Amino acid sequence: MSETVQEPSQVTEAPVEPEAPEQTDADQTESEAAESEAAESEAAEEGESNTESLLVQEGDIAGDYLERLLDLLDFDGDIDLDVEAGRAVVSIDGGSDLEKLVGNRGQVLEALQELTRLAVQQDTGVRSRLMLDVAGWRADRRAELTELGRSTAQTVLETGEEARLRPMTPFERKIIHDAVAAVDGVRSESEGEEPNRKVVVLKG
To answer: What is the dihedral of CA 61, 63, 64, 69, to 10 degrees?
Structure first.
């Protein structure tokens, strides 16, 4: 009697895939931090872009306003628009009558700058810090006042006696303060009320 032996069937097992490593709290925190940093960076870039766009818009509005003003006055002048130190900067150059828009010690220029800022604010709804220069007056005045601030600071440093300068506009006082701050051993402060507010330079 023959006996048939049945061989056991071979069972093929499916390959076991390695389990993905679990993400630790540290890995998750690092990942979240990276995502947060990327989001903040993107938001900052978008904010800078929006600010730049607003300043360019301010310059365009101011340029149109001043161009109409020059036409009304029948003055010649080229209008240049720029963005510097976080503010719109508008310059008018080239005309022979432009000094009339500066006035004595820049008083007419200061008034014109304020009118231009108001025109921009009326259009954008945002208070403008726009800077206006006419015939290079502010640039020349900046150089002159910077030298005055430095020389006054040196004199106070050497003599120990405080010095009071004549009344100045906020623009002029800012330049004096910056110049004095560059000299060690002296300081400056403003005193008085507008339009007679002045800078005092002291030792210490």
So the answer is: 130
